[in-house]
Amino acid sequence: xxxxxxxxxxxxxxxxxxNIDDIRGLLREGDVFVVDRGFRDALPLLKDLGINAEMPAxxxxxxxxxxxxxxNASRLVTKVSITLTGYINL
Length: 90
Prior knowledge:
It comes from Dreissena polymorpha. The protein is built from 3 helices and 2 strands. By secondary structure, the chain is mainly alpha-helical. It has a two-stranded parallel sheet with strand order 1-2. Strand 1, helix 2 (43-48) and strand 2 (52-54) form a beta-alpha-beta unit. The protein is globular, with a radius of gyration of 15 Å.
């Protein structure tokens, strides 16, 4: 799956569809997948599987800026993502 024809979302969708029982064994209630925008196409499958996911906000076509609430939530997701990346790379 990891080649020039498959993006991050396609790879995650494949992993979830073929290994969901193994993945569920790693998760606890309340766990959240923190993903970047490259995974936006995987969000519907994560939701269907009951897996919570958070991603920085994306402005809709024609919008000039996010609402204050959307911007704050987006910054929080980005901050958590950066913190986790630094922790994982230690």
